């Protein structure tokens, strides 16, 4: 407790960021420490689960110390512990879980497992202190692409999800094919700014009429086919043009389906969350479309788009307030449904 | 003074408590490969059995590996977090050497072999060196403050192809054995199941007629937190205590992707 307010320690280790955060009451972030492993995985062109797990274990305790220090509290002040319990890489998740469980046991404080997507959605509460459900959310990252109707703090309906690759995964794969490096999201975003988005018309995959699901696995193949054809013709490849054209083809689908979902659910508030929410074209196009339809658009600042523990702590607080506490048998759920 | 010892490097998890007098109690999980779920509940059950609270723990010891990577990490992550929340220090117990405490009155060679997949075993070979108290009873022997853990390492712990390990064993045994004395080696660990036949064939080969091979009985064959606790007590007496930040797993093998990347370059 601090000034009679509850203190939540949030822990996130579902992929390649080791993070710990201290949240005061619902939405005030006292600290949000993120140890990124991007540099470690760059040499491999993507996240290697075994290496991610090893780094999480090395990082987790100093990261927690740093979060406590920045928040100017000690572990004894912590009132509840929230931790990502899935979905994610199982070996990565279990570092956060083993840590959170052990600490909750010693401190005799409530333990709350948090769904990673619920965490991403909760990032918006931190950014926009006045925002409350209901709203429509597009959660889009390297591991997830879902349209979620958020009816209350702990009540969600998933309206559509990717049937194969996540949007962020498509960015990573195409960036690799184009020789841009890893992680693909920001690199393609940058390259696209210098390219012509209409240079190549890659196929937009909308699936069945009215479907809110996604499919991005074909786009990588589309880019590969295009590159091969051009190479055979002996044509020069303009990487920036391809990055811009690819990006537009993904973003158009994301924006189109999100707006369709908002209209269908009659929500006038739209939220984008997750790593890809930092994409500048997604933000711009969604803003234009929302303005046209009279919806209000909310998105978190880049640091809250990435995997971070503040969003997990915030989600844990709302679960705790609804009496959704876990016991010490809490497990890692790599394919957890929302 | 109480030490909590955690063993999660194998299929079944166990935890043990040991005090200064060397009194050990053990709690083991019956479930296989469910360490993350079961660890805190079995720690809690053990403490309740001994009428202690987690706040009575002065040191957290853990079996550091080798073994299952995931298992090692659950043990080390839990040990570090328990120590962090309790504000206590840790003790890292080498998993292979902990088997010495499975057989502290044994004079032969102790050789744990853990199935490391890819046709390898994690293994090492160790032997007690008796210079004091050999005539005393086990408990007295272990609780004596003067007792120093005195053992020799005949084969250093690492990941080996089985033939490579057996060749190393043969070489050191030839060096060690004086004249025609027969050396006895007892194998422990889950590697016995896939490799028992190969080991017996090796013993039966004419080159090794002065080596006698035994396999540990089922009840003492695998990792056990009691031995981790006993070795931790010994480490405590020797001052081998670590900050939780220095408590690291002993994987004894690089990640597959890392190995492949190095091969390429």
Question: In short, what is this structure?
Answer:
The complex is a heterodimer of chains A (338) and B (265). Chain A has eleven helices and ten strands.
| Percent range for β-strand residues of chain B | 25-35%
CATH architecture of the largest domain in chain A: 2-Layer Sandwich
Specify the overall morphology of chain B: globular
Q: Uncertain regions of chain A: pLDDT < 50 for 5+ in a row?
A: none
- Quaternary state of the chains: heterodimer
Count of folded domains of chain A:
2
How many strands appear in the DSSP assignment of chain A?
10
Structural category of chain B is alpha/beta
CATH top level class name of the largest domain in chain B: Alpha Beta
Strand content of chain A: 15-25%
How would you explain this protein's 3D organization?
- The complex is a heterodimer of chains A (338) and B (265).
- By secondary structure, chain A is an alpha/beta fold.
- Helices cover 46% and strands 19% of the residues of chain A.
- Chain A has 2 domains: 7-124 and 305-321, Nucleotidyltransferase, domain 5; 133-300, ATPase, nucleotide binding domain (Nucleotidyltransferase, domain 5).
- Chain B has 2 domains: 2-95 and 223-256, Nucleotidyltransferase, domain 5; 99-219, Nucleotidyltransferase, domain 5.
- Chain B is built from 8 helices and 10 strands.
- Chain B has helices at 35-49, 69-86, 95-98, 138-143, 162-176, 192-204, 225-238, 256-264; strands at residues 2-7, 12-19, 24-32, 59-63, 89-93, 109-115, 120-128, 151-161, 183-188, 211-215.
- Chain B has a 5-stranded mixed sheet, sandwiched between helices.
- In chain B, a hairpin with a 4-residue loop joins strand 6 and strand 7.
- The model of chain B has no long low-confidence stretch (mean pLDDT 91).
- Chain A binds chain B through residues 43-44, 48, 50-51, 53-54, 57-58, 60-62, 64-65, 75, 91, 94-95, 97-103, 105-107, 328-332, and chain B through 36-41, 43-44, 54-55, 69-70, 73-74, 76-82, 84-86, 244-245, 248-249, 251, 255-258, 261.
